[in-house]
Amino acid sequence: MAELQPDDVLNYPLPTAGPLVPPAEWPELRQKCPVAHIVLPSGDRARLLTRYEDVKVALSDPRLSREGLTRPDAARISASEAGDIFDSPMARALNDFGQERWRRMVGKWFTAKRMQALVPKIEAMADRLIDGMLEQGQPADFVQALAFPLPVYVICDMLGVAESDRDDFKRWSDTFLSLSKYTAEEMQAAHRDFGEYMAALIEEKRRDPQDDLISQLIVATDAEGRPMTDLALTATGQGLLLAGHETTAGFITTMAAVLLADRTRWERLLPDRSLIRSAVEEVLRFEPYTGFGMLRYVHEDTEVPSGAVLAGGTTVVCSMAAANRDADAFANGEDMELGRTPNAHLAFGAGPHSCLGQPLARTEMQTVLGVLLRRLPTLDLAVDPADLNRVEGLITTPLRELPVRW
Question: What is the structure's pLDDT at 264?
Answer without folding.
Answer: 97
